[in-house]
Amino acid sequence: MSSLPVYRWHMAPDGYATRRQLRARNLRPGGQDVAAQLERPRRRRPPLIAYLYRVDQAKPVRPMTSARWVALAKANRARRTCPTCRRDAGYVIPTALGTCVPCAYPEGTRDGIAA
To answer: 20 to 30 Å CA-CA from 17: which of 36, 69, 91, 109?
Structure first.
């Protein structure tokens, strides 16, 4: 057993929030430990668990700087660049293919169906 308080789904007291709920309020956990957890029971499976943080200890979200915007744009551009033909595909290249669709299927067919 953990020493965290456990609440049933939708039964958490005020003052606690999940990461997504904090983000919706433009807050972040800010290094604090998990304060409590929610459990949603399921049949024949382990319960779903959501971790809760204290809202009064949360800190504001750090603003995006120009350097962070540049780094994010560079990372997204790398995800769109095909390693085979080195062109920007215009979409995030699927990891299952590893290349853009024209390079993955050069003959224009997929699973025997003409494109």
So the answer is: 69
| Cβ pair 43, 4 in contact under 8 A | no
CA 106 to chain centre: 33
Query: How does strand 36-42 pair with strand 45-54?
Result: antiparallel
User: What is the rounded distance in angstroms from the CA atom of residue 103 to the CA atom of residue 89?
Assistant: 10
Task: Express each pLDDT in 68-77 by its tens digit.
Answer: 999 999 999 9
Place of tokens 């769109």: 80
Classify residue 30 by burial, with Cβ atoms within 10 Å: 0-12, 13-18, 19+.
middle
Q: What is the pLDDT of residue 107?
A: 80
Question: Which residues are registered as beta bridge partners of 36?
Answer: 52
